[in-house]
Amino acid sequence: MKHDWFHDPIPAPDAAVLVAARERQTQLTKPPGSLGRLEALGAMLAAMQKTQHPRIEQLWITVFAGDHGVVAEGISAFPQVVTAEMIRNFARGGAAISVLAHEWGARLEVVNVGTVQPMEDLPGVMHTRVGPGTANFVHEPAMTIEQLREALAAGRHAADRAAINGAHLFIGGEMGIGNTTSATAVACSLLGRPAAHLAGPGTGLDVTGVQRKALVIERALAKQRSDQPLDALQRLGGFEIAALTGAYLRCGQLGLPVLVDGFITTVAALVAVRLRADLSAWLFYAHCSAEPGHRRLLEALDVQPLLDFGMCLGEGSGAAVAAPVLRAAAALHARMATFAEAGVSKG
User: Fold this and answer.
1) pTM of the entire predicted model
2) 241 near 182, Cβ under 8 Å?
C-alpha cells in the first residue's frame, strides 16, 4: 500500500502562530499559568486553525459500527445481535452519544461498516458494509487486504464530510460486540505486550471471562502477530477500527483537529501514528478509560488525556464529554482581554 492516499502529506500546525499564541497567553488578564493546561490547549488550537481566534463550535461525530468473527470464541458478555440493535438505538436518539450530540448541537452520523446481517435504512445511518463482520482471527486474518482498503476509505470519507461541512473538531466513536478483544489484539501486536497486560472486561466480563479473553488473544497472536501497523490491523483488527484509523489519517491531512475517545479509538490512533508519526500533532486524547489497557496505551503514545472519569462505554461518549474543555480553551484564548486592552496593570 505504498502509494495509497494515506501517504499524502500531513501539514504541521503553524509554528509562527503557535509562538504568537504562547506570547498572547502571557498578555491575557490572568496570572501566568493560572489556567493550567487550558493555556497550552488554546495555543495549540490557534496554531491548528492558523488564527489567534480559534473556535471549537461545530462538532462532528462519526460512530463506526461492525461485527467481529472472534465473538465465536465466547469473549463477550453480550450477544453479537447487540451491534445492530445499538445502531437502531443510535438512530432513535436513545444512546449516550446520541444524547450528548444533541446536547452540544453536534452533527452525529453512524456508519455501518460491517454488521453480520444487512440492515434496513435508518435516519442518520450510512450503510457501507465492507463485509458481514470480520473473520475469526484465531483461525485466519480478520480481513482481506481489499477489505482493509475499503474500511480505511470509509473513515477517509467521514473525515471529508466533516471538513466539507465546516467542522472544527472530529470525534470518532465505535460500536461492535467483540471489539475490545480485537483492539487488544492489535495493541498487543504493535506494542509487543502479552494479552494479560492489556485485556480487560470490555462489556462486563468477570475475572474468568477476562482470562479466557486473554488466552483467545494469545492463540491469535501466535498466528497473526505483526509489528507493522497495517498488517496488524488487517490480521487482528475490526472494520470499525480500520475506519477510525482512516478517519484520523485523513483529518491530519485536512488539518482538522481530532479528539480521540477511549481504549478502542486509541488503538486506532496508535495504528495511525505508527503509520504516520506526523499525525500525532493533530490528536487530542479525551479521557483515560476504565478499560485497564488504556492507560498503557496512553503511556506508549506519551500523551495526557483531558479527563479521567472512570468511563468505558465507547461510542465516542468520553470524547463528547471532554469536547467542552477544548471549546473552553479556544474561547478563552480568543476572547479574553489582554492587560493593555482591559487597562489592567500587569504584575
Assistant:
1) 0.98
2) yes
